[in-house]
Structure prediction request, 607 residues.
Amino acid sequence: MISRPQRLLGEALEFSFRNHPLKTAAIYKGKEYSYTILNESVENLAFHLINAGIRKGDRVAIFMNNSWQCIVSIYGITLAGGVFLVVNPQTKANKLNYILNDCGAKVVISEGILINELSLALEGLEEVQELNLSEASQLNRDNVPEYIDFEEIILNKEHKTYLPKIIPNDLAALIYTSGSTGFPKGVMMTHQSMVFTSWSLIEYLRLTEDERIMLVIPLAFDYGLYQLIMAITIGGTLIIEHSFNFPPTIFRQIEQLKPTVFPGVPSIYAMMIATHKKNGIKFDCIKKITNTAAALPAEFITDLKNIFPNALIFKMYGLTECKRVCYLEPELLDLKINSVGKAIPGTEVFLLSEDGKPVLPGETGILHIRGPHVMAGYWNNDELSKEMLKPAKIPGEKILCAHDLFKMDEEGFLYFQGRNDDIIKTRGEKVSPIEVENIIYKIDGIKEVAVLGIPDIILGESIVAFVTTHDQTKIDDKEIQRNCMAHLEAFMVPQKIVLLQEMPKSSNGKIDKKELKRIILS
Amino acid sequence: MDDILQIQEKVKQFILRTSYISEDQINNDSLIFAQGIMDSMGFISIIDFIEEDFTITAADDELLESNFESINAIAHFVARKIKAA
Prediction:
């Protein structure tokens, strides 16, 4: 008999559970969870959400650290027909409030340790009908909003309702990413798009069901989210860690749990290389390492080969609006040193000039992407969607314009040249300069602010804030950074503050960021 | 010899100096790695700081999160190492 193809995101779990009920799906805090337990917990949550009033297409927000509870939530929401969004646990109250309001989340799933920012964020949000809280027992503070215990929900097998019928065109997820307007925007992904993408990634990464994938990247970041989706789709095992913040724990976990795939970003690899040089760490079990978010510096390669002697190294490039654009076959690593490779399987890329004409090999052009992985648009934002999605020859089809500049060689390999918008990409995260500027403008004594990114070998770009003050008073750098830290995620805090006597202006009176870039780089 | 309160204060000042957190947002029990106050680069700087300022050496098997998770944890770890030296 021909087996049923996967059409919906959640079906991956259903199939893997049926194929290997007893296999370990996830390892978290030293505990192994089988596909049977995962499937059961996911079903219990899905039925709870439906009973709580979640209908097809309703948004359910997850504000959690990487955890077992977080992965149950992702698949539970999708099984209930809801649209999930995972919000970075570092997000501060104001931004969280904006996101929850923007997407109109009906239910929020979170955890006790995040209650401070969460309670503030929930104030005034009328659409949120229910809060599910994990590890809430340790809460010892007043004014905890009313909640239902998450651990009880996923143990409760009362299924007195029906699952909704969802089809591949339905929305599966919103992935929030920083926007040039200073407000995050929700990238809409359908089931068919996410299923397609997961299989394209699995194909080129050559993953098998024996894979054990180590997750240190946040699930709120699409790079992290797809590690989960791929692990479940292949019927593999996901090793869940909160973060890479305390490296010795990760190194010990690799030794003990023997993952086969390690997805990282340059700042993680830089840290590993520094440790390797000090005490010679080496991980034989890892068969594949992947890099995205910022270019992998060529000088890292030799050390990475020493740390991971048995691993294929995959260089990749992407943007949230289509998840991933291209990858370089690991066998070509030394041959195509600065390239990020070719389009992922089943997709197409091409470069166009400013006036929309194809560019010749070796010339710089704007990257355009075609394929089923392209987003449906930004949630609630037609105008911005139109800026990114252009009509194609086939009626109704949309092509993604990445606003990134690339060159392509005669053989079709891509080379990143830079961005043509203001967005800063640092540690793999997108940062909107306006968002940072808005916080600094609120500090007493500040007259003008301009925030921009400058190239940095480890971070991709580092963030610099140029400021002028009223009466040219001195200003404490640390004070500015602390203010940013209090209102923004840690990766958005400028590494450097530069006090200027006067802000350079262009002829129309706007702050001249090109001139500022020239000042800092000279 | 530094007493525990002095060590705590030194560690706290170091963390305030190298992170972007303000004094009113951190206490001696705040989980500095779990809450993202320090990241992996911050971890390296903490090791360098305690090794230089307190002339102690942290062995590989002592690099446990429980020894470094908060200002208090670091201070107690340093105090134990000084005592053992």
Notes: The CA atoms of residues 46 and 62 of chain B lie 14 Å apart. Residues 4-18 of chain B form the longest helix (15 residues).
